[in-house]
């Protein structure tokens, strides 16, 4: 009998043992967990929540880019390209840039509500890259971005 194979959708706290999008062979399972051979070469029990069947697609971030000048704008749009060439976008900012945004007397409406807003410590490319990869590895990047409708 062929062993069950599963695909990782979220690495959770298992960064040492899992790679998002990778297929793993199940060594054992119980009601809530699979036991697999992790990337670190050891067998580990991991929640079934972190996996899907190998037939399901798992979008993985390929590249990203700033769409705005990070020194000119408080709310900076970012485009993310996934391994299937689909694109999504979000807005990033910092606490300091939010203060600057709210200091504008012409701001209307006098508030902000964005499900696709990521608040960063800095807008340095290395920090943005690290945050986007973290969200991608946790299977949260799709949730905090919107589809980019090119036209």
How would you sum up this structure, described in words?
This protein is of the alpha+beta class and 151 residues long. It has two domains: 5-53, SH3 type barrels, CATH 2.30.30; 61-147, no CATH class. The chain is built from two helices and ten strands. It has helices at 95-103, 125-137, and strands spanning 5-8, 23-29, 33-37, 43-47, 51-53, 61-66, 76-82, 87-93, 117-119, 146-147. The strands form two sheets. A five-stranded antiparallel β-sheet has the order 4-3-2-1-5, with no helix packed on it. Strands 6, 7, 8, 9 and 10 form a five-stranded mixed β-sheet that branches. The chain is elongated and about 70 Å long. The mean pLDDT is 95.
Give a brief rundown of this model:
By secondary structure, this protein is of the alpha+beta class. It is built from 2 helices and 10 strands; from the N terminus they run ββββββββαβαβ.
Characteristic key phrases:
single chain; SH3 type barrels; 10 strands; 151 residues; 2 domains; 32% strand
- Give the overall average pLDDT: 95
Low-pLDDT residue spans: none
Give the H and E element order: EEEEEEEEHEHE
The total of helices stands at 2
Largest sheet: 5 strands, antiparallel
The count of DSSP E runs of length 2 or more, i.e. the number of strands, is 10
Tally of discrete structural domains: 2
Q: How do the strands of the widest beta sheet line up side by side? A: 4-3-2-1-5
Structural class: alpha+beta
- Please give the share of residues in helix: 10-25%
General shape: elongated
What's the end-to-end separation, in Å? 50 Å
Q: What portion of residues belong to β-strands?
A: 25-35%
- What is Rg? 19 Å
């Amino acid at each position: 009998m062929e062993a069950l194979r599963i695909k990782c959708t979220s690495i959770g706290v298992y960064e040492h043992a899992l790679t998002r999008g990778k297929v793993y062979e199940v060594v054992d399972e119980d009601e809530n967990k699979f036991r697999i051979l992790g990337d670190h070469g050891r067998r580990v029990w991991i929640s079934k929540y972190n996996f899907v069947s190998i037939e399901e697609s798992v979008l993985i971030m390929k590249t990203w880019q700033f769409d705005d000048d990070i020194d000119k704008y408080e709310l900076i749009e970012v485009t993310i390209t996934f391994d299937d060439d689909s694109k999504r976008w979000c807005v990033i900012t910092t606490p300091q840039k939010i203060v600057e945004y709210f200091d504008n007397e012409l701001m209307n409406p006098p508030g902000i509500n964005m499900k696709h807003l990521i608040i960063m410590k800095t807008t340095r490319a290395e920090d943005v890259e690290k945050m986007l990869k973290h969200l991608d590895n946790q299977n949260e990047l799709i949730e905090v971005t919107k589809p980019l409708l090119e036209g």
